[in-house]
Amino acid sequence: MKTARMETIDTTAGLLPAASGQGKRSKLSVLGQAALAALLAIGASQPAFAQRVVKMVVPYGPGSTLDIVARSFNAELGEAMNATVIVENRAGAGGTLGTAMVAKATDNNTLLLTAATFNIASHLYKNTGYDPVKDFTGISYIGNSGFVLAIPGNLGVNTLQDYIRLLKSKPGELNYSSAGSGGATHLAMASLLSKVGATMQHIPMKATGEAINEVLAGRVQGTMSATVALTGMVNEPRIKLLAYTGAKRSSMLPDLPTVAEAGLPGFAYDTWYALLAPASMPKAEVEKVHAAMEKVLANPKVQERLKNQGMELGTMSIDELGAMLKADYDVAGKLVEASGAKVE
After folding, report:
1. Phi, then psi, of 68 in degrees rounded to 5
2. pTM of the model
3. Rounded-to-integer distance, Cα 24 and Cα 286, Å
4. Which superfamily is assigned to 52-144+270-339 in CATH?
């Protein structure tokens, strides 16, 4: 009766010298070879260390201005931090849902990309779940962007002064649209009306495109809009661009005068963009992310992408940003009160 034996395969021929004192090369069973190959494959596929993953939360949906801004530099920020930076959209309740989530984060890997609506929402919603002053730390200021006052092309006025005279001649009779009650476009128009002492009926829409469509259709007599949404309509006969609300002319619409140049000296209204972190993030980590963002914002490719969104880039230290955020909170409260904005 023959004894069964397990077939063997030489796995070391020509690779390893014979072991000392042995005249034959080592042999592995078919089963043993498969196991070894599997172990080697697993080892080769594992990174030397786990890659850090950082979430940059955008409190609005995909395709929003903030979402586009976030995706303009998240890859470069990841490189600067030696990490993977992913954009996570957490929309809802005027941006307060995503903002509240970041406020409660304690992992040191969760950031918030936000704009002036950050402070505005705090005055509109009673229970946001966070304190914008106490629960956040400013990391990096990115820039700011004004708004464009647009009116129907057949309204019969050609200048801001003509427009103001028309509004005053029909107090409360004319309408304006916005991208939403209490949002930046609403408050931009409310601020202008307050400055000139005129009144209009507010028609809130759900998005910038809808607000512009109301002007194109002639159903409202004006709107304030993000610059990037109107750059392609300079020659559109159904709409007329009257003025830009920024402190200086937009690089995207250099021929359009500012509101101050058009007859209201000292008037300026814009929205800022900044990267924030939960107040729980250690100072040393905040400084690291700030340094990484400084590198990112110096990148010409990133600068071009942001400017294409109508942004005027700028820089601030961590302390300067903190002071700006606090001062802006007070200003936002006054604007919301003056506008009579309510959450609908």
Report:
1. -65, -40
2. 0.79
3. 62
4. Bordetella uptake gene, domain 1 (3.40.190.150)
List the beta strands (DSSP E) in 209-269: 223-226, 239-244
Along the 344 residues of the chain, how does pLDDT read in single tens digits? 444 433 333 333 333 333 444 444 444 455 555 545 554 554 444 444 458 999 999 998 888 889 999 999 999 999 999 999 999 999 988 899 999 999 999 999 999 999 999 999 999 998 999 999 999 999 999 999 999 999 999 999 999 999 999 999 999 999 999 988 888 899 999 999 999 999 999 999 988 899 999 999 999 999 999 998 999 999 999 999 999 999 999 999 999 999 999 999 999 999 999 999 999 999 999 999 999 999 999 999 999 999 999 999 999 999 999 999 999 999 999 988 888 887 75
* Residue count (the chain): 344
Residue ranges of alpha helices (H) inside the chain are 30-45, 65-70, 74-81, 96-103, 117-124, 160-169, 184-196, 208-216, 283-297, 300-307, 318-339
Q: Which residue has the tokens 């077939």?
A: 7
Domain range annotation of the chain: 52-144+270-339, 147-244
- In 3D, which of 118, 87, 74, 123 has the Cα closest to residue 100? 118
Give residue 277's region: left, alpha or beta (phi > 0; psi -120 to 50): beta
Phi, psi of 288 (to 5 degrees): -65, -45
How are beta strands 110-115 and 52-58 bridged, if at all?
parallel
> Within 13 Å and on the Cβ side, how many CA atoms surround 38?
6
Query: Residue with structure tokens 């530099």?
Result: 73
User: Which amino acid is present at 230?
Assistant: L
Q: What residue type is assigned to position 155 of the chain?
A: L
52-144+270-339 and 147-244 in the same fold: yes
Rg of the chain, C-alpha, whole Å: 29
CATH number of the domain located at residue range(s) 147-244 in this protein: 3.40.190.10
Contact 212, 223 (CB under 8 A): yes
Say if CB 251 and CB 231 are below 8 A apart. Answer: no
Q: Are 141 and 314 contacting, i.e. CB atoms less than 8 angstroms apart? A: yes
